[in-house]
Amino acid sequence: MYGQQEYADWFTANKGEEVGVSAYRTTISPLHEGTVVVQNMRVSDLRCTPTKYVGTAVVPPAIGDGGDGVTPVVVGFDLSTVFPQPRKLVSFGDRQTSPGKEVWNLGGNAFEKGIYLDGGDHADARSFDLFFFTGEKDCTFNVEVNVTSGPKDAWYPIKLGKKLDGKGSVAGQAARYESVIVPTETGDPQSDLKGPGNPFPAIKLKKTNF
Question: pLDDT tens for residues 4-13?
Answer without folding.
Answer: 788 778 887 8
